[in-house]
Amino acid sequence: MSKTLEQDIAAVSSIKAIPTILDIVCRTTGMRFAAVARVTEDRWIACSVRDDINFGLKPGGELKVESTICHEIRQSGKAVIIDHVAEDPLYACHHTPQTYGLQSYISMPIRLADGSFFGTLCAIDPEPHRLNTPETIQMFEMFAEVIGFQLSAIKNLLDEQNTSAIREEFIAVLGHDLRNPLGSISGGVSLLRKEALSERGVQILALMQGSIVRMSGLIDNVLDFARGRLGGGFTLMHQAQVNLEPILQQVVNELRIGAPGRTIETDFTLPDPVNCDPSRFGQMVSNLLANGLTHGEPDEPVRIQAATTGGELHVSVANGGHPIPPETMERLFQPFFRGDVSPSQQGLGLGLHIASEIAKAHDGAIEVASTARETRFTFRMPLR
Questions:
Q1: Are 53 and 104 in contact (CB under 8 A)?
Q2: Quick one: which of 309, 318, 282 has its CA closest to 382?
Q3: pTM of the entire predicted model
């Protein structure tokens, strides 16, 4: 493989948002394989992959370029979208679906800032899926655009300062532009929940709603990070008489939807209202609780406690699992730090950083204690 192609693969791998993009693509379309591919005149190379159908491709893996539809997209410069291969007049007999056993397919060209073709953002599945909708097309176009923007930036980076600036600009674009397709998906789910559905349909909608909650939290985190780094600052909207228990219960209920089968135990002793920003407070607790669900042992409960005592508000989230190593503990609240995580634990590594910033903005702090028995994050804030 040429040095240039190796650099292209490395550039895609360095974009921390791409695994999340592939995750969103699969969750919102139902497709079970998605990839960012580098496509040249004679090469098709997978740069980043999400594979839930055991297709067998890993980053750096190749397909014969002439066997792919991406080869045709490179020549035409236009996206290809197939809801159901068997019913598609153009692709029912096409060699690519027959070769790889596909029934649904979508591929969007990725172009660099100078207009040159880099490759494709594509997704496939052996089952048919409805893809040819304005919302799905808009989402793929937006993702392909921001990937191309970031790749163009990487090619022109001169030093680490430029790297940080471009990354943060990319995050800002990603966060803002995700609102539109997410809003469409959320609206669609709300409409479907009013319809008579089978038990399976209700379960699928619950999973989709959980994904929407998680994606919304991710967008909030990246926007907050972008504002903080790009000069907008981190602001609070304090309210003097906030009843925290309904806020905490709403956060718990939302995350229960997104984590079916997991147990979340609650213990709230909050007799008096508190002075805080209720929205930011809920975001902070949601980030801590999501972290516990992500890193805790699946067969052990995540416990959230909240109480006012000794002139302070205490909120703690505890989960079972392996203790956090000391070298990881030192960097837990740094942005983009994810520690040792499994491939299924996707994210940008911003949740704990944003939670810590919200705590500081409330004149509070988050403490961490981790032993073989449990890991506990505790937020402490003086009562006003």
A1: no
A2: 309
A3: 0.49
